[in-house]
Specification:
The protein is of the alpha+beta class. It has helices spanning 2-27, 30-33, 35-42, 74-94, 142-151, 166-192, and strands spanning 45-56, 60-71, 102-114, 122-136, 156-163, 199-213, 216-218, 230-232, 235-247. The strands form three sheets. Strands 3-4-2-5 form a four-stranded antiparallel β-sheet. β3 (102-114) and β4 (122-136) form a beta hairpin. It starts with a helix and ends with a strand.
Length: 248
């Protein structure tokens, strides 16, 4: 009898454990485990774009300079070009420019042809091209850089442009992101107030990369002997954010 009672007790415990396990399996299904996420998705949202802009004084200037030389044969064209460009670079260094402020942008050698009517092209020589870019923060000598380069053999000035250094870009971008998010929040609050609703949270924020506008402002030269006058305009930097707010 005692053995029977003991067996019945063990059987009862096993049944209880089995029922409990089954209950847990039915209760904690994958569907129930994401119930919170589904509730979040069911919340009403408002998508708003925020924008912030700032005019910034650039701290980097780049000047593109090119030497072109024509000669009857390739080696002569390249040799003369190299001689002139070496003279140009040495003269620029005399102005106080460092090696890391002068970079070769392009070197090329191109055949030159004469095209007689109804006849095959005739090779008449070669054109050697060597282009450098001077990137510097020495804004006070930009005009002198161009004049010195031209005086020493540069025969093409391909452009002058102004940019922001990475350090300044990062600093400005962080300021604008904060302002753009605040702009988005103000827009959302303005839209919700007449409806008697408010922001209850943030679902997502997307930051669009900053956009840059690079103007270049030139002054008129006072006379033929004057240094080439160049002045940087301010750079307009814009950051856009897309914010999805939970509302209620």
């Amino acid at each position: 009898m005692k053995a029977f009672e003991k067996t019945r007790i063990i059987f009862t415990v096993v049944v209880i454990v089995a029922i409990s396990t089954l209950f847990l399996m039915l209760t904690f299904t994958p569907e129930n485990s994401v119930a919170t996420d589904e509730n979040e998705e069911a919340k009403p949202t408002l998508s708003v774009m925020g924008v912030s802009s700032m005019n910034v004084q650039p701290d980097l200037a780049s000047v593109a300079l090119t030497v072109e030389v024509k000669a009857e044969n390739a080696s002569e064209a390249m040799g003369k070009n190299a001689e002139i460009m070496s003279r140009v670079i040495n003269a620029l260094k005399q102005l106080g420019l460092e090696d890391d402020e002068i970079r070769t942008r392009h070197v090329g050698l191109y055949p030159e042809y004469f095209y007689p009517k109804d006849k095959p092209p005739v090779l008449i020589g070669y054109r050697a091209v060597n282009s450098i870019t001077v990137t510097t923060q020495k804004f006070d000598i930009l005009g002198l850089i161009i004049d010195t380069a031209v005086a020493n053999g540069v025969n093409r000035v391909d452009g002058v442009w102004f940019t922001l250094s990475k350090e300044l870009q990062d600093s400005v971008k962080l300021q604008l992101i904060s302002s753009a998010v605040e702009n988005a929040k103000l827009k959302a609050e303005a839209a919700l107030e007449p409806l008697g609703m408010s922001i209850t949270g943030v679902k997502s924020i997307e930051v669009k990369e900053a956009g840059w506008y690079y103007p270049v402002v030139y002054k008129e030269a006072a006379g033929a002997a004057a240094t080439t006058p160049i002045m940087p305009g301010e750079i307009e930097v814009t950051v856009t954010v897309y914010v999805v707010f939970y509302i209620g």
